[in-house]
Amino acid sequence: MSDLKERAQALDTADALAPCRELFTLDDTVYLDGNSLGALPRHVPDRMRDVLARQWGELRIRSWDESGWWTAPERIGDRIAPLVGAAPGRIVVGDSTSVNVFKAVVAASRLAPGDRDEIVLDATTFPSDGYIAESAARMTGHRLVVADPSDVPAALGPRTALVLLNHVDYRTGRLQDLPGLTAAAHAAGALAVWDLCHSAGALPVGLDAHGVDLAVGCTYKYLNGGPGSPAFLYVAERHQAAFDSPLPGWTSHADPFAMDLGYTPAEGSVRGRVGTPDILSMLALEASLDVWDGVTMEAVRAKSLALTDFFLECVEAYVPEGRVTSVTPAAHAERGSQVSLRCEGAAEVMGALIARGVVGDLRRPDILRFGFTPLYVGFADAERAARVLAEVLEA
Prior knowledge:
Shape: globular
Strand order of the largest sheet: 2-8-7-6-5-3-4
Low-confidence stretches: none
Largest sheet: 7 strands, mixed
Helix content: 25-40%
Distance between the termini: 18 Å
Radius of gyration: 22 Å
Strand content: 5-15%
C-alpha cells in the first residue's frame, strides 16, 4: 500500500497538468464524476456577476450587440472546435444534446441520396439518442437498423442513409473506432453522425481529419460548462451549404431581423441555430472554457490513460479478489476516460463510497462508474479511491 501511495505522490509531482487543479473549486472529496458533471472553474462566479449585474442589469437589451450576446453561439463554438479537432466556423453552440441529435439525424437523412431509407443505430447508445433516432425514422419514413458498433460495417448497405454512433460507451467506457467506422460508412455511401458527449474534452477526436459528417456533444461533462449548459453541433464544411435543419428557427435565418415569413437559411454553421440563445448558461460555458488555455488534448489523453491504468493497478492490488470486474477495455485504443467496474450490490457500495468522500456514480444494476478528468483529478485521487473501495468491500 505504501508503495502505491509513494508512486501516486511521485506521479503527481511530475504531472505537467497538476497546476490546472487550482483553477477549480474543489475540496477534499475525490471527485470521479466529471463524466456526468464537471467541476466549477473558480473564476466563473465572478464572470457571471458581471454578466448579471452589468451586462443584463445595466446594459440590458444593448448587450445583444455591445456584450456580444448575439454572436455567442458561433464564438463559443470556435473555442470548442480545437478541442474536438475542428476548424473555425464548423461548430455552433445551443440547445440540448438531444435536440442537436434530432437536427443531425434528420439533416443527415436529407443529405443522403433519396433511395437510401435506413438509419443504422449503435445498439449500445445512450437511451435518448435511441429514442430520437426511432422518432426521426418514423417521421422520415426510414427503417431503423440496430447494430453493435463492432457489427456496423456488416450492417451498412446500399439503403443506408446514415449511422449514429457514440464515441465512448457511457456504461463501459469503451472507445469506439471513430476513424474506421466513419470510413466504413463513407465506403457504403452513407453519412457518419457521432455523439461526443463522453469524449469531448477527454481525448482527441479529429472531426475534420477523419471526415466526420455531423457530430453533437454536451459541454457539462469534461468541458465543465455547468449543469444543463448548452450542447454543440458540428457540421462539416462540405455539408454546410446543403444542411437542411428540421428546426429552422428565426436566429438561423439569413436576415433574422427582417422577420420574413419565408425562411432563407443563413450560411455556415449558423444554420444549426434555432431560437434565442440561452445567454446565462452559454456565457458561463464561455468563461469555463478559459481553463483550456495552453492545454493540449494530447497531454490530456496521456494523463487520462496513465490515471486509468494506475487506478486499475490499485484496484487489483487492494480489492479482494473476485469482488469487482472491470468492464472497461484494457487496451488504450479502446478506452475512454472512465473505468467501469461490475460489482454485486453496486448501489450500496457507491452509497458507502460517497459517504466516505469518493464520488463516482452508478449505472444499474451492477456498474460502478468512475470518471477521470485529467485537468483536476490526480494520481493520489486514484489511489485513495481504490483503497476506500477495498475498505468498503471488506466491511
